[in-house]
Every structure is written in structure tokens, then in C-alpha cells.
Write a structure and sequence with these properties.
The two termini are 26 Å apart. The protein has one domain (38-184): dinb family like domain (Four Helix Bundle (Hemerythrin (Met), subunit A)). Helices cover 51% and strands 2% of the residues. It is mainly alpha-helical. It is flat, with a radius of gyration of 18 Å.
Length: 189
């Protein structure tokens, strides 16, 4: 296990631009040509890119590395971020209806981070949970293609929910950048 004062050497797999995660030809987030047409397609494209970025920041790490906490007293880890976004995806569906909210999957406040332990079964479950919850939220929102439609007891617009989803993933991808660099020194956007 790494000690707090052990500092990995910074590195990247990119050979074209030293501040990139991967070379443009190898980066699955990059596509040639014009971006998507329309507001909804653009929002979905950004969401897809940030979701993929989070997974890329976690790839190649073992359970201990994924569960490694950043700096005390923080409970944040890459695995904790994955589990947190599971809870967030589930909660966004609560915004869509006026009924009782779906319960938290991992338990009360911060259980998503506290339960992010170095166990391969916990890691595998977190990835499966994330895929399932993302698909469920995507399916629920696909029923509401009008970005101006207001939903739920707070009458939140679909547009606001989509932008908030992008913001949430983008913010946590920033955390993932720093967490990954602390784990093994790998850098890049």
C-alpha cells in the first residue's frame, strides 16, 4: 500500500500531446467531423463523453487502487465516485415523478464512499450498478424528449436535469483526474 508521502511519477500514454490521457487516434471520446445536431443530441453527447471519461480514469487499476482514499479526512476514492454516481443516477429518476423516492442503494448519507472498499466483488458490483442505473435513468428520460417539459413535484425541466447530469459527471471527472494521479501518476484530460 502506498504511503501518503510516496509520490508516483507523472506519466501519460499520449505521445502526441503530453497533457492528454490518450492520443487522439486512440481516444474513444473523440470523433471526426461535426458534432451532433440539436440541443438534446448535444447534451447526450456531452453526457456520454463524461461517463466514458470517468470509466477511463478507473481502467487498469486493481481493487485496492480504486478504493484508495485521496487525503485524510476525505473519504473520496475512484470507487467511491463510481458508487456515488450510482446513487445520483437513481436520485435523478426521483426528480421525474411525484411519488415516493426510490431508496438509496448503498444506505444512508456517504455510505457510497464509506462502503468503497478494496474488494473485487464490491468493484464489480459498483460497475454493474452504474451500468444498470444509467440505463434506467436514460430510459426514463427518453420518454420525455421535450427539454422544456417540467416534471416531478418540483417541476424541474428536462433541460435542467440534463445539464445537471453533465455538471455532476464533469465535476467528478475533475476529482477523478486528481485521484488517478495520486494513485499511479497518470495524467491527462
Amino acid at each position: 500500500m502506498a504511503r501518503m508521502n510516496d509520490q508516483p511519477e507523472r506519466w501519460t500514454q499520449a505521445t502526441v500531446h503530453p497533457d492528454m490521457w490518450a492520443d487522439p487516434d486512440d481516444d474513444p471520446r473523440d470523433s471526426d467531423g461535426a458534432g451532433p445536431d440539436g440541443e438534446l443530441a448535444t447534451l447526450l453527447d456531452f453526457l456520454k463523453s463524461y461517463r466514458l471519461t470517468l470509466l477511463m480514469k478507473c481502467e487498469g487499476l486493481d481493487a485496492e487502487q480504486l478504493a484508495r482514499r485521496s487525503v485524510p479526512p476525505s473519504t473520496m476514492s475512484l470507487l467511491g465516485l463510481v458508487r456515488h454516481l450510482v446513487e445520483v443516477e437513481r436520485d435523478w429518476r426521483n426528480w421525474l415523478h411525484e411519488g415516493d423516492p426510490e431508496p438509496k442503494l448503498y444506505g444512508p448519507k456517504d455510505a457510497d464512499f464509506h462502503g468503497a472498499v478494496a474488494d473485487r466483488a464490491v468493484v464489480d458490483a459498483a460497475y454493474a450498478d452504474l451500468e444498470r442505473e444509467q440505463a434506467a435513468t436514460d430510459a426514463a428520460l427518453a420518454e420525455h424528449p421535450d427539454l422544456g417539459e417540467r416534471l416531478g413535484k418540483d417541476k424541474t425541466s428536462v433541460r435542467e436535469l440534463m445539464v445537471h447530469r453533465i455538471e455532476e459527471y464533469a465535476r467528478h471527472c475533475g476529482h477523478a483526474d486528481l485521484l488517478r494521479e495520486c494513485v499511479d501518476g497518470r495524467v491527462g484530460q
